[in-house]
Amino acid sequence: MQRRSILKQIQLPLYGLGLVLAYGIIGYVLFGYGVLDAIHRTLLVLTTVGFTPAAPPSTGEKVFTASIAALGVGVFLAALAVVGTALAEGRIGVTTRRRRMQRQIDRLSDHFIICAYGRVGRAVAREFEAQAVPFLVVDRMESLEERMNLDGVRYLVADPTSEAVLLQAGIDRARGLVSAVDSDADNVYITLTARSLKAGLFIVARASESAAADRLYRAGADRVISPYVSSGRHMALLAMTPDVRDYLDIEAAGFPALRLEEVVIDDASPMAGGPVSAACGDSTPVLLRRADGSILKNPAPDETLAAGDLLVALGEPGGAERGEAGRASTGG
Fold it and tell me: Which of 161, 286, 298, 312 has the lowest tally of Cβ within 10 angstroms?
């Protein structure tokens, strides 16, 4: 956006330069010079190099040459003012920084796209950073650019509801998308657009109103979260059981945080056919979802895993073994 703004402002001086060139060439041709001589003399006057005429010029030719010089200086000063203003406002630096950021984004793959960098979006970004998960932020608010830059996140200052912007964010190479805009209508639109661009994309969307959850699921969201409902439920649980910390984030002094991890057993996974204990490692198995959708709570360590199963284990991050073809993700 900034780059387009600078180019738009400098267009007028460029058009002016073209008109002055045309004015000088046509004028010298009318004074009896050939086209090449006319171009040569016009450029010499505009670049202030000057020339020595073979014969004394007429009064009309002198006035005409002076007018070209005056117009050329005016166009040059106008262009200089535009560039100087852009430098003073830092827009050229911003444009350069955004182009460099885009090159970084173009190299991303298997990443997440976070739409909006408000309180929810920042919390998501911090968790991705803690888990070393690649991501980028898309937010239309230019006022947040300095904060995103200071936080060291990859970002695009653009409208996340735009199909072109999501493509620019590499949605075709992305692993998932988190739509955390504070507008339910925007979240529905982003979800619809993202799902149309990539059918297998994992989409988590934010719902401010409970009625919006159904619309988001119909739009293609895989999971819908309401921060207000979730925080209210969490506060109620802490009030009723003050000695029990949230099972998604158990953390005490001197002990590492615990997380729920998912281990997906696909057809090529070496864990298929093996026991639950082999996949859990040091973590505790909490739930096993079979390929047919049936759920087994607290599966026994010797329970046999099969292709298509999903195992949920509680432990330190990375505690569950990850097979070469299995894919694990961290929750919490």
Answer: 298
pLDDT digit string (tens) for 123-143? 999 999 988 999 999 999 988
In this structure, which amino acid lies at residue 324?
A: E
Which residue intervals of the chain bear CATH 3.30.70.1450?
250-331
The Cα-based distances of 277 to 44, 271, 291, 332 in angstroms read: 84, 10, 19, 22
Residue 104 burial (10 A CB sphere; 0-12, 13-18, 19+): exposed
For the chain, give the percent of residues with pLDDT over 70: 77
Q: Are 108 and 136 in contact (CB under 8 A)?
A: yes
- Domain 109-230 belongs to what architecture? 3-Layer(aba) Sandwich (3.40)
Average pLDDT over residues 149-177: 93
Query: Confidence class of residue 109 from pLDDT cuts 50, 70 and 90?
Result: very high
